């Protein structure tokens, strides 16, 4: 078997048993590679959606880059704006630049202790270290950025609300995003209300910033991922393995393996890969397995690793009853990312 240290060849993810210490998990709390250089200057606000520029201006102020522009024109006396709250919540659909802006806050804020991670990474850290140790770890931090705040697990939401409450009391500033599907009529307008209701104990600490717009990637959620025939798949995997490390797993084997690996270790599971290969993709019939796959795809997408697959197109793995259920937003986000990953 090719080891994780290998730079080329083929590995089986189902044979990897990654380990990740608490310190290593904390070291991972930085923006994903595609946002390493994200700045406010590189965020291109769409003039057709004024809320994008307004959000950018407010966040520059939040990050300490100057006061937000005064209303009323150049010759009007500037009024002192309302004091910024310790937290900001970016509310909007796919592809309007929320994660870019979140990373821009991280890079722009001139502080020593700052962290950037997805909601699942923070909750995984609590699971690995325990609540008290996690609070002690982040106590005194200047900034916590939380991408894709999830509201569908009451237990996780309660833990995060309690954690954030303790940190804000100690002076930590917060910035959070969550995703709203662009095709979900009316849902976007209620995302902020959902967020504030679920974190009611912390709601007064957050200023909601709405960002409208269309997906800059121009990917429709109801588009299709690419599925290859067996010969084309074999050719792509073999060719890619001469230039980098690739994985090649039966879809069922990977899904079974994900149940044995804590989601906090998924990032280590794909370490070193230049391509992920999945054979004989099939529709899910178990929601727990589907949600683990969503968490796995989040890590693959963050690492910008392409996917090649055979069988059912990857955007078709979530059955209609799952898409109509309480985890709909998660599945739609995963579909958007799966389409992009198979086209990369």
Describe the overall structure:
With 344 residues, the chain is of the alpha/beta class. It has 2 domains: 9-17 and 219-343, 3-Layer(aba) Sandwich (Rossmann fold); 47-72 and 79-210, Rossmann fold, CATH 3.40.50.300. It has 13 helices and 9 strands. Helix 4 (119-129) crosses helix 5. It starts with 8 loop residues before the first strand and ends with a helix.
Which structural class is indicated by helix and strand composition? alpha/beta
CATH architectural group of the largest domain: 3-Layer(aba) Sandwich
Give the count of helical stretches. 13
- Helical amount: 25-40%
Multimerization state: single chain
What is the N-to-C succession of helices and strands? EHHEHEHHEHEHEHEHHEHEHH
CATH superfamily of the largest domain: P-loop containing nucleotide triphosphate hydrolases
Radius of gyration from CA coordinates: 21 Å
Q: What percent of residues are in strands? A: 15-25%
Overall residue-averaged pLDDT value: 85
What's the arrangement of strands in the largest beta sheet?
A: 3-4-5-2-6
Protein name: Cell division protein ZapE
GO cellular component, one term: cytoplasm
GO molecular function: ATP binding; ATP hydrolysis activity
Keywords: ATP-binding, Cell cycle, Cell division, Nucleotide-binding
């Amino acid at each position: 078997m090719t080891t994780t240290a290998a730079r080329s060849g083929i590995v089986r993810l189902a044979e990897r048993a990654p380990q990740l210490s608490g310190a290593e998990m904390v070291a991972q709390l930085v923006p994903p590679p595609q946002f390493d250089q994200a700045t406010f200057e590189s965020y291109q606000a769409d003039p057709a959606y004024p809320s994008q520029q307004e959000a950018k201006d407010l966040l520059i102020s939040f990050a300490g880059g100057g006061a937000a522009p005064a209303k009323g024109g150049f010759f009007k006396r500037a009024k002192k704006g309302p004091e910024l709250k310790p937290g900001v919540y970016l509310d909007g659909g796919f592809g309007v630049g929320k994660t870019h802006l979140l990373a821009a806050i991280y890079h722009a804020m001139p502080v020593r202790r700052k962290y950037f991670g997805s909601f699942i990474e923070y909750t995984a850290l609590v699971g690995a270290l325990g609540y008290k140790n996690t609070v002690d770890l982040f106590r005194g931090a200047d900034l916590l950025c939380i991408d894709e705040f999830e509201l569908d697990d009451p237990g996780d939401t309660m833990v995060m609300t309690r954690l954030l409450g303790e940190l804000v009391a100690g002076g930590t500033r917060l910035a959070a995003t969550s995703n709203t599907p662009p095709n979900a009529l009316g849902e976007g307008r209620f995302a902020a209300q959902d967020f504030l209701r679920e974190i009611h104990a912390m709601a007064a600490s957050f200023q909601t910033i709405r960002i409208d717009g269309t997906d800059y990637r121009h990917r429709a959620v109801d588009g299709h991922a690419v599925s290859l025939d067996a010969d084309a798949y074999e050719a792509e995997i073999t060719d890619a393995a001469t230039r980098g490390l690739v994985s090649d797993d039966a879809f069922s084997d990977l899904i079974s393996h994900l149940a044995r690996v804590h989601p906090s270790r998924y990032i280590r599971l794909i370490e070193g890969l230049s391509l992920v290969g999945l054979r004989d993709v099939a529709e899910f019939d178990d929601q727990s397995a589907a949600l683990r796959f969503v968490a796995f795809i989040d890590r693959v997408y963050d690492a910008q690793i392409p996917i090649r697959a055979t069988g059912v197109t990857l955007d078709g793995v979530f059955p209609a009853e799952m898409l109509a259920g309480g985890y709909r937003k998660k599945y739609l986000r995963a579909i958007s990312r799966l389409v992009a990953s198979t086209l990369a």
